[in-house]
Amino acid sequence: MKRFLFFILPLAIITMAFKTDKAAYQIFSQKGKAIKYSKMLKTLNEADIVMFGELHNNPICHWLQLEVTKDLYANKGTQLVLGAEMFEADNQLMIDEYFDGFYGVKKFEAEARLWPNYTTDYKPLFEFAHENNLKFIATNVPRRYASVVHKKGLEELEKLPDASKAYLPELPIEYDGNLPAYKEMLEMMKGMGHANENMPKAQAIKDATMAWFILKNWEKGQQFLHYHGTYHSNNFEGIVWYLKQANPDLNIVTIASAEQADIEVLEEENKDLANFILIVDEDMTKTR
Fold first, then answer.
1. 176-182 — which CB contacts under 8 Å span 24+ positions?
2. Please, what is the Cα angle at 274 between 285 and 256, to 5 degrees?
3. 12, part of any domain
């Protein structure tokens, strides 16, 4: 009996320890099945374009972005191209100059329009590209043009000088105000007393511009990994919609991010957000 207890008690303690483990995140399939990172990576490796939608202030998202980047690089090498919402298209020349060694990191960081959480969240991705001779593409529309759309509509972009239009997709862009994401945005603004029909259009010019610069810098045989707020690709809309309008044959794999109090089961509202859904414990600390 004593020998039996000698083996059983340690097993019970180990079992209890596993039950009280506190996981920080869980990856789910589109329909809600919990999966391992390795299974997701296998699918990502086959994609033309990987869309990683993040929660901007979530450290788990940023850590996993770096891990995905390293693993896709291990598979694709210099055929991997990186790009991000966090860099506006008119910063591309400065990025290229920095990567080509014309000046150092301090000068680049002082003059580039970097997000407040750049150092903790985006610099590791950016410098990974720099150190491994990967192209890094500034895909987002310069914010001054999104502001023009917000105030005066998409038509106002046509009046810009030709030099300005170099940072935009071909005009006029296709805009479908009936897409759920844009409709929801407008309804939310109305509910807050800020009814502005141009608000979703300003979102659309960001989505269209990011899609434009992704395609402009991708060619068959390469893989493009894009970082952006998850809203820009949730439900396969936003950037993904514009990519598919331009090239329906693209193999696009999306990752969405969301927070839940319980990460064991994917909540209904988070199903179908993307091919893979990264769920993070809602108590996770924020990066800004």
1. 176/241, 177/201, 179/237, 179/241, 180/235, 180/237, 181/231, 181/234, 181/235, 181/237, 181/238
2. 15
3. no
pLDDT value at residue 142 = 98
According to DSSP, residue 47 is labeled -
Would the pTM of this model clear 0.85, i.e. be above it?
yes
Q: Is 3 within the bounds of a domain?
A: no
Listed range (164-168, 195-199, 215-219) with the worst mean pLDDT: 195-199
Residue with tokens 């409709």: 183
Q: Give the pairing of strands 25-29 and 34-35.
A: antiparallel
DSSP state of 268: G
273 located within any domain: yes
Domain that holds residue 97: 25-281
Using CA of residue 208, residue 211, residue 212, residue 213, what is the dihedral sign? positive
Cα-Cα-Cα-Cα dihedral sign, residues 31, 34, 38, 41: positive
CATH assignment at residue 195: 3.40.50.11550
Could you list the beta-strand ranges (E) of 104-222. Answer: 136-140
How many domains does the chain fold into? Answer: 1
Specify the pairing of strand 136-140 against strand 276-281. Answer: unpaired
57-95 residue pLDDT tens = 999 999 999 999 999 999 999 999 999 999 999 999 999
189 close to 224: Cβ distance less than 8 angstroms = no
Give domain status of residue 85, yes or no. Answer: yes
Q: What is the mean pLDDT of the chain?
A: 93
pLDDT, tens digit, 9 for 90 and up, residues 129-179:
999 999 999 999 999 999 999 999 999 999 999 999 999 999 999 999 999
Beta strands in 174-251 (DSSP E): 223-229
